Amino acid sequence: MKEFITILFLTLLAACSPNNPNQKEMIANKMLDQYDDTLKGEILSNPFFSKRTTALFTSPYGLLTVPILSKGVVQLIDTLNGEVIAAQYNLGKGPDELLDPMGMGFNPSNSTFCVWDLGKQAINLYKVSAEGFQKVRSNYYNEIVPSQLRNISNTEDLILTSIKYQSLLIHNSKGIVESLPYRINDDANLDYYNHYDNSIIELSVKDELIFAADARFPYLAAFTYRNKKIVKLWDKMVFKPEYIIKNGWRRFNKDSYRGFYYMSISDRFIYLSYQGLTFTEYNQDMENLLKQISLMVFDFDGNFVKSYLLDQNVFAFTVTPDDRVLYGFITIVYFMVLSKVPTIT
Q1: What residues does each domain of the chain span?
Q2: In degrees, to the nearest 5, what angle opens at C-alpha 17 toward C-alphas 299 and 304?
Q3: Are 135 and 126 contacting, i.e. CB atoms less than 8 angstroms apart?
Q4: Distance CA 116, CA 123 (A)
């Protein structure tokens, strides 16, 4: 069923100032009650169509996304009214077509937009301008199973793999340049050959930093990739997870709370959305049981800064580099909403 997307404009009620992370004890079932302010908004005018939820990125020229349509699948969207400025490239097997686009990311340092095509096992890079997109290159990969990606430069991409042996990779047209095993728990009883963590990544090209968060764990980590060498800087559990290790992998308590749903970064902060759902609620009836979503903000050292309650249930979102606006998709039954939220100044 084709989903419908519109746009919201949300106004910030208060500016953000760093808090002492020890001032509040992070408890999973109370995190939604610990927000500092509420963000509210209104719907913008133009509708936008996609057959499934997609990621979203902000650029100087507009919003970037890849809706699942048959034609014009790489799109540039006006931030003022949601109108589609450019819609290029189609689904298909042709040289410039996308067979199965699954992931994407924007690099502000060179104004490029990368799109992972699972069907062709390729990562396409497009130059973004006010007129739309121009294809720069395609890097093909072999014997890699990506789960997330971001673009580092015109030649290199960052890939978070899934199985086998989940890793963070720097990859170019010749293959893997650098690799670091990705481990939330470094436990010998965990079988990373047949299992992997359902994590999301973001990239600060300016600071050469990689951030990772997880959907099942309340986990947040930072890595550097200076001189093409990936090194972990820090990691943390925002609240205590409840699980056991059985048959080579973790088994979470069905009444324990999941981790973070989505992540975006600005030039200064990490933004994480938290739904406050247990594993049972998420798996059985997320649409009806999801009452509210909070937005947690951390600095690049992992210190908690502030928490917002969103008046709309934002799923995928993106934040402008200056922290002034957050744009996000909202799913309500078969409707999706693209929203923008002024945030931290």
Answers
A1: 3-341
A2: 35
A3: yes
A4: 4
CA distance 134 to 338: 25
Q: Which CATH class is domain 3-341?
A: mainly beta
Strands (E), 238-313: 243-246, 249-252, 262-265, 269-274, 293-299, 304-310
Residue 119 in 3-state DSSP? Answer: coil
Dihedral over Cα of 159, 165, 166, 169: its sign: negative
Q: What is the pTM of this model?
A: 0.90
The residue type of 66 is V
Average pLDDT in the 19-31 region?
Answer: 55
Strand 326-332's sheet: what is its strand order? Answer: 262-265, 269-274, 293-299, 304-310, 37-50, 3-11, 335-341, 326-332, 314-319
Which tens digits make up the pLDDT trace of 116-133? 999 999 999 999 999 999
DSSP assignment string, 199-215: EEEEEETTTTEEEEEES
- Give the up-direction half-sphere exposure of residue 179: CA atoms within 13 A in the CB hemisphere: 8
Residue 226 has which token pair? 């200076």
Mean pLDDT of 272-290: 84
Cis-peptide into 164, omega within 30 deg: yes
> In angstroms, rounded to a whole number, what is the distance separating the alpha carbons of residues 41 and 311?
8
**Identity of the amino acid at 145:** V
Give the SS3 label for residue 288: helix
pLDDT tens-digit series, residues 209-266: 999 999 999 999 999 999 989 999 999 999 888 999 999 999 999 999 999 999 999 9
pLDDT category of residue 290 using cuts at 50, 70 and 90: confident
Contact predicate 343/324, CB 8 Å: yes
Is residue 95 within 8 Å of residue 104, measured between CB atoms?
no
Is the separation of the CB atoms in 320 and 333 below 8 Å?
no
| pLDDT, greater one: 23 or 176 | 176
